[in-house]
What does this fold into?
Amino acid sequence: MISLNIIVPCFNEENSLNKFYLEVSESLKNNNNLSWNILFIDDGSSDNTLEKIKELSNNHVNIDYISFSRNFGKESAIYDGLENSSGDYVIIMDADLQDPPSLIPEMVNYVEDGYDIIATRRISRKGEPKLRSFFAGLFYKIINRLSNIEIVDGARDYRLMKKEVVDSILKLKEYNRFSKGIFQWVGFKTKWIEYENIKRIEGESSWSFWQLFKYSLEGIVSFTTAPLHIATIAGITFSIISFISIILIVIKTLVFGDAADGWPSTVSIILFVGGIQLFAIGILGQYLAKIYLETKKRPVYIIKEDNIK
Ligand code: UDP
Ligand code: MG
It folds into this structure.
């Protein structure tokens, strides 16, 4: 008998959970050689998510839950779920049914074909604001140009992983957890399944534009130091340019005499160089902030209650 843990981060999902459970059990009812359970991580929801989960776990034996003391974010919930999973296979999926449970049997089959990870990506962003799709596309272009690992455009967190993969992900102890990068970084043989974007059944996506922007900076800073090199190269380039212009100005003064003109251009140049300097310091600051957070060694999440035996 193969054991399967399904990890489900939940933040204000009270209206999705019943339907979610029904669909998952429906899709797995024919897989008799599989013993599966769901681990709900209540990520500090402010609605009745936890009560709903408890209700479900009273009615069904195969439901575990962990509830955080506050909202720690999906990345923390995923990490906690992985730490508490012991199955041969582990699946991570959203509670809002944007990750179709009907794919689970297919995923299990692919592992039996010899894959270690079955990952999913959406091939369209239908139903998403145009501007958001545009910036998402831009983010993937930038991060893939800058970093060594490939972050697949449209990759979801919905994936099945064998135990070995989960163990290696847990070896990455960093505090700033950018899962999309970490999943890719550990390697292993991956099969990608593609599907069309599906709208969430209930409620709103909890990601605002600003959160997504911070998330993408997080990804870039976590997985590449290229911006630091860009700052260095910009610095060198501007030093060379200024050196050449000093020589040119000296020659010009010697040949044509000194007319005190050129103030507007001087001011523009000062502003420009000042801007570049602030930009470079800002990049430094981003990395420094991450180092600061890492050195504190704070826990990734705090558990308020659970029913894990
Ligand atoms: N989620 C979470 N903590 C958060 C935000 C979201 O656990 O702080 C969960 C949420 O309940 C859902 C999944 O993460 O199961 C994906 O969230 P959402 O649907 O808002 O994101 P999207 O699908 O738009 O990427
Ligand atoms: Mg969603």
User: Anything to note?
Assistant: Strands lie at 2-10, 34-42, 63-68, 89-92, 117-122, 155-162, 190-195, 303-306. The chain has a mean pLDDT of 87. The CA atoms of residues 44 and 70 lie 4 Å apart.
